[in-house]
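How a chain folds remains the central question behind the approach discussed here. In the encoding step, the backbone of a single protein was reduced to a row of integers, each denoting a local shape. We regard such an encoding as a compact summary of how the chain folds. The sequence in question and its structure tokens are set out directly beneath this paragraph:

___
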Amino acid sequence: MRAALNKDFNIKIALLYIIDKFGGKASDVQITEVFSNVCGTNYFSMKQCEYELEKEAFIHSYYYENELYYLITERGSEALSFMSERLIHSLRTEITEFVKNYSCKGKTKEFISEAVPVSDLDYNVHIKYDEFNMPSLELSFRAGGRKEATALAKLLEKHKEKIYKDLYNYIINLTNEEE
């Protein structure tokens, strides 16, 4: 089993390295996944180091579409170019591979439609549309018994693109009416 990063200096360099490997911008979710899967670091230590890096202007955080992102600053890039060798080679390699695989799997879109039992006789249909491994749409509604719910789930799966497009168009039209 690999050793966990436990020194703040190493955690900070790893944070800069991870953000850099995501192209200079990474979501909080992406960073957390790399740390939990590769670095073995305590979540709270990681968050404290993120805070300190931002306070020292090595990274900058911002919200985009209700998600927190971190951007490496010029100062952070300069520090990383001098300090990246301080991370052991095997960890740098693991981070790079994880990010590469994460980016590849993140390009897929997935639509799930399923009948979910609520009680012995009642079922809900749950649909979920994920983009880049993040939920883009989730909807659950009562659908009657098992037979009806299963049939409806199959029908929704068959027409998934139209449902997704029409629902988003409807929501956009509602927001335009409010303005």
About this structure: The chain has a mean pLDDT of 84.
